[in-house]
Amino acid sequence: MKFEEFIAGNYIQQYQYKSFSPQKINKNWIWQNPFINVLLENATRALGELNAFTLIVPNVDLFIMMHIVKEANTSSRIEGTKTDINEALMSGDDILPERRNDWQEVHNYIEAINRSIEELETLPLSNRLLRNTHKILMSGVRGEHKTPGEFRKSQNWIGGSGLSDAVFIPPHHEEIGDLMSDLENFWHNPDIQVPHLIKIALSHYQFETIHPFLDGNGRIGRLMITLYLVNFKLLKQPSLYLSDFFEKNRSSYYDALSRVREADDIIHWIKFFLNAVIETANKGKDTFHKILKLKSDSDILVTKLGRRADNVRRIVELFYIKPVLNVKEISKKLSISERTIRNVINDLMKEGLIIESTGARRNRIFVFKKYLSLF
Known about the structure:
The protein has two domains: 3-286, Fido-like domain (Fic-like fold, Orthogonal Bundle); 305-372, Winged helix-like DNA-binding domain superfamily/Winged helix DNA-binding domain (Arc Repressor Mutant, subunit A, Orthogonal Bundle). The strands form two sheets. Strands 3-5-4 form a three-stranded antiparallel sheet. It has a two-stranded antiparallel ribbon with strand order 1-2. Strand 1 (9-13) and strand 2 form a beta hairpin. The protein is mainly alpha-helical. Helix 2 crosses helix 4 and helix 2 packs parallel to helix 12 (309-321). The protein is built from 15 helices and five strands.
């Protein structure tokens, strides 16, 4: 199938509305547009360089957590949550009651990312994996009554107040099983000779068009990109997330997806997606550069603190995993006395490595500001 001859699908009359039925994508794809080749080469190189960083950075797992937190916060914000990244890093007890629902949605997404990455060790990218991830995402939050972990069995819509004024109506629920099976087969079909970045671009468009869940499709569809890259070994670590690019270019993102359905313009979407990979991977490399510099500086500081160096090192490493902490959290996670922790924190504050964010004398919250600012 040539991109230049692509037909997105057709509208099917249902009761009092028309739903969009996309064409299946489990087939070979070719194109004549040379600019796609240039973007594909640049995106593949940028992704490979980002992957190389995750292989050479010492203790890279310390820093991957912040990538995950940023993705969870940004992807959730696209869907309307108002939690900022500082709040996302706090414990639930420190969040104002009126903001806890948004905070919980972000933390469900963090849990969904971590669990799905772990599951990839025994379960390949599949509809089963996506359903498992969706169940975690929707547990105990808005949308928890919309069949978490199950493909929808009723019609949904995008935009508007209902089917009568919807901006877009995805395929009828009776088509979901067949369309999602086609998508899964596309991922693993050995006869399809298409570069992975093109396949995941097509897959993201197709998933968002099918909209297989009653809620949470945007977040699962964006997470699916990273799961694909890890599953097929394009990334060793889950270090590339496109939600930040999509949020900053939100209208262009939605427009690019809509242009495929309305004008069969799959080429425009492929270009947009490849540009997203290039910019995001390059930003990721820059962040790792800055992390290495900060880690070197903080290691020198730890050495300077002499006899307390071991406790200082452990506490600083915890701040790399979670840059917003209180004394009780540190004590619980590291089994260090609160008195010792306060002494260490005072030293770190004097050196300017961390700051106190509340201005209070009790229940103080400490922030690894220099690290957090990188994200």
